[in-house]
Amino acid sequence: MDLCEWLGLGEAGRTLGAVRARLQRRVVREAFPEGVRVAAWLVLAGAEEADADGYRRLLGQGPASSAAKIARDAPRTFRGATDFGARVEPGAITRVLNAAMHDLGAHYVQGMNALCGVLVYVGGELLGFALFRRLCRLLPTYFGEGAREGDGLVGCAAGCALVERVLEAADCELLHHLRRHGMAGPLLGYGTLLSLGAALEPLREVVVLWDFLLAFTPAVMPLVVSARLILARPLLLRSQNPLGVSQGLPLDARACIAKALELYAGLSPDAVDLVARHVCDPDACRRLLGAKERGEGEESENLDFTASSASAEA
Predict the structure, then answer these.
(1) In this structure, are residues 136 and 153 in contact, taking their beta carbons and an 8 Å threshold?
(2) Please, are residues 147 and 153 in contact by the beta-carbon 8 Å criterion?
(3) Are residues 71 and 179 in the same domain?
(4) Is residue 183 part of a domain?
(5) 51, 60, 131, 229: which could join 119 in a potential S-S bond, CB 3.0 to 4.6 Å?
(6) In whole angstroms, what is the distance from residue 117 CA to residue 200 CA?
């Protein structure tokens, strides 16, 4: 199926901007069909189709410096998903990750295997490599060489701070309940943010979620994490172990997308700017984390995260 035909674009209207705009409108209403998904993701990510010879040259460089970590994590990727095993060749994740680490001059971090796995599952090995490389470049505070700060990755830590701020504005009661039971900071969704939700289940719902993330930028992932918690509000408020409950929740991509868009519409302009910049600007991350340039000890400033969405009734 041709992407432009599916979007209803004639020859004269097939500009990159028009295709992206149509994809953004469509993803709000429906998931992308499998026949156009790879083409849509490449357009939305701004990824160039990978050069097969260049990919082979990268593989020819041998194992990357993080090869031992990659070898440990790659076989675990979607191990329980039978459709993943049927579609993705054993060893493909290992090859893509080693080649990408050479190409980017980066070091592997846990969670990249799931991120890579979704891309290879949808696009195959070569296009999966092109998309993975592009996402890493789009998210330098998550995956770039300058991302590590202290004991974690500054973008993911800032993403968790965003989740906390959004919940504080949209559902204070839920946030206070989570905090009382030790679910704050990184426990609000560090691993989910690091993998852009790829570690959630089921895989078919993750793919639908990624249609949305690539259409509206992966920077909105903290809003998806917030939405998922708010949608599970009744279960979480009744539980004395909300962390355990949240970790066992199956992903409902369409419900999370709708709620995330609602939350986004209620954010202040300053909050929207911080959401957009936390994936690429260390200063925005430090601002969210409430510290000055070196990330040291001052209390966070009072940022306006006013959200119009009221919390759901339990």
Answers:
(1) no
(2) yes
(3) no
(4) yes
(5) 131
(6) 12
Q: What angle do CA 256, 276, 302 make, to 5 degrees?
A: 95
The pTM of this model reads 0.90
Domain limit, last residue, from 138, 164, 180: 138
Q: State the Cα–Cα distance between residues 111 and 194, nearest whole angstrom.
A: 6
The full DSSP string for 242-308 is HHHHHHTPPP-HHHHHHHHHHHHHTS-HHHHHHHHHTTT-HHHHHHHTT--TT--SPPPP-------
- The single residue listed with the structure tokens 């470049």 is 137
Cβ neighbours, 10 Å, residue 97? 28
What residue type is assigned to position 288 of the chain? L
Cα–Cα distance measured from residue 271 to residue 303, given in angstroms and rounded to the nearest whole number: 8
Q: pLDDT tens digits for 178-225?
A: 999 999 889 999 999 999 999 899 999 999 999 999 999 999 999 999
On whether both 29 and 56 belong to a single domain, the answer is no
| Residue 175 placed within a domain | yes
Locus of tokens 């369409």: 254
In residues, how long is the chain? 314
Contact between residue 209 and residue 251 where contact means Cβ atoms under 8 Å apart: yes
Show the domain range for 79.
Answer: 52-138
Q: 220-268: per-residue pLDDT in tens?
A: 999 999 999 999 999 999 999 999 999 999 999 999 999 999 999 999 9
Domain CATH code at residue 217: 1.10.472.80
**What DSSP line would sit under 126-162, residue for residue?**
HHHHHHHHHHHHH-HHHHSTT-EETTEEHHHHHHHHH
- State the Cα–Cα distance between residues 222 and 26, nearest whole angstrom: 22
Residue 314 binned pLDDT confidence (cut-offs 50, 70, 90) = very low
Q: How far is it, in rounded angstroms, from Cα 119 to Cα 143? A: 16
